[in-house]
Amino acid sequence: MDYNSLKNQIIAYTNRNEPAFVNTIPALIDQAMSRIYSEAKTLGFQKTIEGAMVDGSALIAKPLDYKMTINLLYVKDGNLIFLLDRSYEFCVGYWPDIALKEAPIFYSPDLDVPQNDAAMPFIYLSPTPNDNYQYKLTYLSFPPVFNEQNSRNFLTDKYPNLLIYACLKEAIPFLKSDERATLFDSLYKEALQDVNKDTQERYTDRVTKRTKD
Deepest of 87, 130, 170, 177, by most Cβ within 10 A of its Cβ? Predict the structure, then answer.
């Protein structure tokens, strides 16, 4: 599947080809993409970047396309140290004096870092690093632009059914009395459930989930 074939499938499934509807399809696709990446628990593109912690700074800048951390590790004395995912409140409570430095143990992916007076895209480290440790961040990213010029992505290659059903769900308001509206909604929910189960199983051994500290 690519962008143009997706548009054609939307027309075929809905049996609507009048210009007003066809002209709306790009917006429906955009809405469907937003819905998927909002409702899919771990779906995204996996990427890995490397960098260096800053001695005395508890912050690591997130990549611009960051969605979710898979794991964060660094090298200390030749050994790989995997940081443990905790809430920001836990990290601050564990190491309240950020002026004191030690090898990090925990990290928080929370966007809000109150002492910066803004919701900034950082990962918070606890304790504050005592060296410029080399780190490796593996994360899920949001997808690139999807249009006629960038006609393929993670969804078109791996989860085309989820994408088409999401588009059909977005088209429901245009179908009005079409009895298939309920069917399209059901197909999307089933596909989403299958994808969430699939991706959750693949990432379970790489992501630590905690409901409380």
Answer: 170
Amino acid at 38: S
**What is the per-residue pLDDT across 129-141, written as a single tens digit (0 to 9) for each?**
999 999 999 998 8
Residue that has been written with the tokens 């780190």 in this structure: 135
| pLDDT tens column, 54-112 | 999 999 999 888 888 989 999 999 999 999 999 999 999 999 999 999 999 999 998 55
Paired strand residues for 126: 106
pTM of the model: 0.64
Residue 76: strand, helix, or coil? strand
Q: What is the 3-state secondary structure (H, E, C) of 183-212?
A: HHHHHHHHHHHHHHHHHHHHHCCCCCCCCC
Q: Residues 6 or more apart from 188 whose CB is under 8 A from it?
A: 162, 165, 166, 168, 169
**What residues pair up with 74 in beta bridges, in sequence order?**
81, 135
Closest by CA to 125, choosing from 155, 101, 147, is 101
CA distance 25 to 19: 10
Q: Report the SS3 class of residue 41.
A: coil
